[in-house]
Every structure is written in structure tokens, then in C-alpha cells.
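Repro case for the chain-ordering regression, as requested:
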Amino acid sequence: MTATDSSHLEPDTHPSAAAPRQNGEATGDGPASTADIKSPQQTANDGVADPGPADPDDKPRATRVAEGAWLGGVCTGLARHLGWPVMAVRIAFVALATFQFIGVIAYGALWLLLQPESTVKAPGLESASRAGLRDKSRPKRRIDWGMLLALIALGVGLLWIMQNTGLGISSKLFWPVAFACAGAALVWRQADSEQQKRWRDEAGGKAWLAPFVARGGWPALVRVIVGLGLVGAAFGIVIAQQGQISHLPEVMAMTMLALAGLAIVLAPWLHRSRSALNQARAEKVRADARADMAAHLHDSVLQTLAMIQRQADDPRAVQQLARRQERELRNWLYGDELHEATLKAALTLAAAEVEDERGVPVELVMVGDCDTTDSIQALVRAAREAMVNAAKHSGADKIDVYAEVDEETVEVFIRDRGKGFDVDSVADDRMGVKGSIIDRMARHGGTATVRSAPDDGTEVRLEIKR
Amino acid sequence: MNETTSQPGGLGTTGQPDAQSPDVQRKPYSVVIVDDHAMFRTGVKAEIGRSVAVVGEAADADRAIAVVLQTQPDVVLLDVHLPGGGGVEVIRKVHEKNPDQKFLALSVSDAAEDVIGVIRAGARGYVTKSISGSELVDAIRRVAEGDAVFSPRLAGFVLDAFSGSIDLATVDEDLDRLSQREREVLRLIARGYAYKEVARELFISIKTVETHVSSVLRKLQLSNRHQLTRWATDRRLV
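-- result from build under test --
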């Protein structure tokens, strides 16, 4: 089943990477249009059940980003998507807000339409977090209040200039619109699904409590009341401007009464449907996760266990299998997402290959990373050769590989605690060390030094300019 | 194999570091094992039981806090992932009452966030669960004697966290950067050198190596470098 699935997946990843640049320009004209452009691509993506190994960078979708967000994360998300500085996007929105509130409306629309960035962690960490096995205290998100104030001041200033020069909306409409916008924004903030999830957590996971406990948390309540008040004020102003100020109390009272009646009638039904929806959604997510997990365990662990049983009389093979399975599982559960063309990916792969072929554990530690170039690839090949040598000749039970990348150079150390050898006595015709390590590094402008002594292990040091 | 295991044991006090020799000379170190997998606890106990005295076990954070406070062992072997808030929670709660309690973190997860988190909470070292029995005994002794235990991976994390983006405008420069010597020591550890080999390589005593490592540990715990936390969360290893 999984086999057919994946074979179906491969050809399905048709070029959906429709130039994010173009997407970006459209956004510059009117931010709301981003959503229109996105939807066809989204449906294209939906066809692909699991975009697993695809590089996240070539997904041309903007998302709301919680990290570093001031309000809904729309600006941060757009800025990341377009590759612009965040502050530029923020200023653009504030400036747009002064033209008939376009900025405000666009921001609101994008807030609703953009998916929150999915911060999916490795399944092992996710489940450990869910089960409360990990430290929960996360660093608080920092808001630059000074900048925020500056932006608000800029917006108000621009608005004031527009109004004074007569380019803006007529003053008759201005305050009602402003109030209504602010009120609607406050109320609609409830629609932020990210927030809802947090509320549900606050309610201790009891779904039926959520609307009362979490939703009724005083900040949310205050927000709703103030928001409704502002919208009400907007109506009030309009009515007052119509000159029917004397009827205002009656109109207000009637409206309130009608709304209250409607709320009482609809509340239970709304609540029930909402919690049913939530439950169904959670159920589906859980089922999906379980299916993924089962498929993965079947493909990896179960197969390995079967192979181990078959080769039970060969301890070396068993160890090798166990080691490979451990590496694979660890990587799946907690592992780094390795991007294709980096030194780290290449070295990890080389180490894994040597480990599998020779059955000697290779411990890789990396500091920094960089993209691969021709010379880096040569470095990786030389490093692999050194690992193979260590595994083949040293007799050590473990190989340590350490790679460090700084601004100018890349260094890799391959070390074993095996039997070592006398460096000077190595004949020139020994292809391994001379040809594939020292000469190869020299050809690419790098250096390789081998340090070894009998009974004192071997360390190969490779260095190359970036 | 033999050579490997005896080499990390290069401690200045005894002439020939042998896993058995502390047994004979002094009371074995007392250890509490905190891990939610009973099978793992049993395995560890079988492996190290001859060299150290296992005085308690616990499977979750609350139980661990109680057991550790009651038995006050020399070293607590602490799983990073633990029901009830993780190892970090245990260290915090115990240190409130007994700030001198020593912890050695043990984990299958190599996530930088978790490793740095548990060290910053106050653990004196970090080793992976695949460590061999004799190496673990050695690490326990080192922690019990007040030294720090850095695996190659932890050394790599620390170098990564303190490297590159050093902000010169930070307030406490001493805490926020590693000295040249500390960097050299860490690099050798990351390259797989045991303390004894580091000492020989740099022509310094093992005690000096231990001092450097302890000082790095202190910086790691005390530095409130914004980048350090950021680094660990950003990296996330996911």
C-alpha cells in the first residue's frame, strides 16, 4: 500500500513552483490578491498527501509566522515569503491603512486567509511534548514596543495629514469607519485559530470547558465587549449624524434586546456544533498520525527485527542492523532536517555509508555548516576515504569525525583509537592515503595531514578554503 | 576496546585509573536512576551496579524529586524526557531545596534544545544512552567529584552556540565568550579526545583540562546570552 502511494507521489510533484517572485509583485499592488493567487496552488498541493521530503523552500506559500510577530504574524510571514525586510512590509501596511483603510482591511483578510505556519517537529519530540515529558517553559516572545509605538504614530500622523488635506474620507464617515474597523478587528481576533488552540490548552484539554473557561478568560471577554462597544459606537455616530439623536436610546435598546434574544436561542446549538467540529477534526488528525506511525514502524523497525531474527547467529551483522535501525529511527524521531546540498548532509551520508559497509560506528559532530561546492565535495570524498581506511585497517571500535566550518575554512578531523601505523613507512604506492586523500586535497587547494603512531590511533586532518 | 575504556579514566588522584579501584579504596558513589523506562533502569543497574551503589529509582518527575531529596545521592542519573515536565523540572525543584545535588543527564534525544536546556537547568554533564557501562561509571565518578562531563556532541553544540555571532556589545563579556584555551579544549573533546588525551595534546595537566571544562559549563549555565537560547530553539534539530 505504501509502495503504490509513493510511486503515485513521485510523478505528482509537478512543477508547482510557479515563480514566487511573480506572486510577490502582485502582493505589492494589493496584498489581498496574494490569497487569490495562492488558492490554485494550494489545491495542487493538497493532491500530494505527504510533502515529506520536499524542500520547504520551494513551497510558494506565504504563512503567518508566530515567531517575532506583533499582531497576527501577517507582516512577518509576508516579509519572509517575499524576501523583504519585515519593517518595510509593516510600514507599507500602515501607509496603506491611511488610504480608505485598505491596509487594515487587507491585513484582516490576510490574517484570516493565510494559514498559520505549521511548526511541525519530529514525531518523537512532538509526542514527548504532548505527553509532558519535556520542559514546557519556552522563551517569551519579545515585542519591540518602541517600534510598535513608532509605527502607530506614523499611521496616525499619515491619517491626520490625509484628513487635513482633504484626500481622505469625508469626516462624516471617518470616525464611524475607524471605530467599526477597530471593533471588528478586536472581535475577529477570536477567529485566529492559533489563539483558539491555546485557549483549549488553558482549559486543560477539556473540550466542553473551553468555551466557558478559556474563551471566557477575561482578556478575551474584555476584547469582545470593547470590540462590540466600538462597533456600537460607530452605529451610534451614524444615527446621531442622521439627526435622529432623540430616538437613539430606543433604537439601541431594541437592537440590544433582539441581539440578546438571538444569542440565547442560538448559543447551545452553536456551542454543540463547534465542539463536534473540533472533536471530529482532532480525531482525524490523530488517526492520520497513527497511520503514519504504523506505516513507518512497519517499513523500518519490523523489517529490521525480522532480519535480526534471521541472522541471529552472526553478532556482527546483528549489531550492524541494530545500529543502522537506531540511526534511522533516531533521525526520524529527533533528527535534523538535512537540506540536500550541504556539507552536513554529505558528511552524514558518507558516515552512514561507511557505518553500513564496514560495521564500525561513526560518530559525527558538526559545528556550523555550508553549501557544497566542487572543493567541498572533494573534501567529503577524502573524508569518506579516511573513514573507510580507519574502519578497514585500524581495528578501532569507533570512529570520531568532527567538522568545523568558519568564515574562511572548513576543517574535518577523522580519528580512531586503533592500532595506528608509522606514517613515514607508508609506501608511496599505497593508493588510499596518498592518492585519494592527500593528492585529492592538494588538487583542490586544500591540505591533508595524517598523524599516527603505532598503538596510538590515527587522526587525519583535512582543511580547505571555502 | 580495553584501551578506549581505560583512557577516559585519566584522573589525577589515582595512579592507574581502573573502574574497580575506587571500589576498594572508598565507599562506592551513591546513585539514583531516574528514567520512565523500567527496562532501561534495570539494564543500567545491572551494568553499573557493581561499581556504584544504586540507592533509588524513580519513573516520573514528582517521584524523582521526592526520592532524590530523601536519599541525597552523590549523582542522579536523569533522563531528559520524563513524565511531569522533563528532567529540567526535576533539577529545578531539587535545586530549590538542595542546590548542591549533582545531576548527570542521559538521553536518547540529541535535540540541541533539550541538551542545552537540561545543562542550563543545572546538570553537570550529558551523555547519550548508548554509552557503555564502564564509560558511564567513569562519567558518574567525574560528576561526583565535581567535574563536568562533556560528550563530543555536547562539545560540538557548545562550540556552535558560542561561535560566529558573538555580539561584542553584550554586557558580560567574560560569560558570553569562550577563551582561546577553552575553545581548544572543547574542539579536542569534539574530535573524540578523552580528557587525558586532551591534556597530553595541549601539554597541560588533566586537572587543568577539568578546570577548563567546568568553566565552560559555568558559562553555559550562567550566561544569559539571548543568542544561546535563540540558538537552541532555532536549531531545533527537526
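Ordering looks correct now. The interface with chain B takes residues 120-122, 124-125, 128, 131-139, 326, 330, 333-337, 363, 365-368, 396-398, 400, 402, 404, 406, 413, 415, 417, 459 of chain A (CB under 8 Å).
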